[in-house]
Please model this.
Amino acid sequence: MAALGVCRGILKEIRMAKGSSYKHTLVYKYVLEQFKRNQVTGAQLCRAQVEALHAAQSYLSLLSSTRLHLRLHLRYHSPRADVRIDQAAGLVGLRLPQQPGGKGWET
Amino acid sequence: MMLRNICRYHRQFGQVIWPFPQGHHVPSLSTHIQKAKYSSAITERKKFYQNVSISQVDGGLFEINLDKRKLKTPGGKLFTVPNEALAIAVATEWDVQKETLKFYTMHLTTLCNTALDNPTQRTKEQIISAALKFLDTDTICYRVEEPPGLVELQTNEWEPVMNWIEQRYNVVIGSSSNIMGPQIPEETKETFRQHLYSYNFWSLTGLEYVITQLKSLILSLGLIDRHLSVEQAVLLSRLEEEYQIQFWGNVEWAHDYDMYELQARTAAGAMFVHLSSESTAVKRKILQD
Model:
C-alpha cells in the first residue's frame, strides 16, 4: 500500500539525516505513532486516513527535497564547490572566468 | 501522468520570504529593529547546541528548546507553535543540522518566524486580497497557442485541475491565450474570499507562501484541498519548463537545484497550512460490536 511506502520513505530520510541514533528522535516516534493510529478504520473511505496520508506524503516530500537541494547546493554552489570546479577545469588547462563583483546572489 | 518520465528544468528563484509589496506605514522602533534583523539575511552560523527538545506550556502552546535555551524568533519573541506535530517538525529541522546551521534549509522555522513576528504587519484582509489579485495572473489560466506539443500538454494537464476547482467551488474561472488574461467574474472572487476567510492568520501566511512558490492560486488550493500532491502541484506549476527540458535537455546544477528548492518550499508551506488549521481534539471511533 501507498502508506507503507511513505512510512518507509520518511523513516529512511530520518535515518539519513540523523545517523545511527535516529530511533531515539522525537520525530521517529511521532511518525510511527501516527501511522499506527490511522491504521484501524471501519469506513471504506476514511477522511482522516486520506488527510493523514497526504500529510505524510508532504512531509516525505519536504525531507527528501531539502536533502537533495542541499546536496546540489554543496556540490555546485558553495565556496568549496568553486574550488572543486576550478581544479576540474585546471585538469584540462582551462580556467574559470573571473567575475569582479562575485556571484551576487549566492553565498 | 505522462510527465513523470520527463526530466527537470531551470527556474530562477531568489530568497524571497515576503512576496507582496507592503503598504505605506510609519514603522515604530520595534519594527525598525525587526526589519534590521530580517534584512541582514544571515544564512549560516555555527551550531551552538547539542540537544533539541520540545515542551508544552500553558495555553496548549509548544516551545522549542536548544539545550537549556528557549528558541526565539528573529524579532525577539518567544518561539511558540500551536500544536505538537508542528513543534516536532520544527525541532527536527534544528536537530538535523550539522556543524553549521543552514537557515535556508529550515523552511518550517522560517514560516513560523514570519507568522509570529509578522514583520511587514500584514492583516488577514491584505493577504486575502493579494491572493485574489493573484488569480488574475494565475499560471494555469494562461495558455499558449503554439507549439502544439505544449498546447496539448497544457490541455491534458491543466484542464482537469481547472474543471476540478470550478466544480469544487462552484465558480467560473476560465483560461485565455491572449496577453490580457482571463476575465474572472466578481462572484468567483467573492466565493474564494468567503472561503479564505475561514482560514486563520497562520494558515493564510502559509497559503500566501505556497501561492508565491507555485505562481498559482488554483494550484495552491488544489494542493491545500489535497486534490494534488506536492510533486504534482510543482510539476503542473513548471509545465512549460518541463516541456522545454524534454526538448533542450536538463542541467542538474540549475534545473534540479531550483526544482528541489521549489518542492521543499511548497511542501513546507502545505504542511504549515495543514498543521496550523488542525485542532488538537482527538477523534476516536467507537468500534462497534
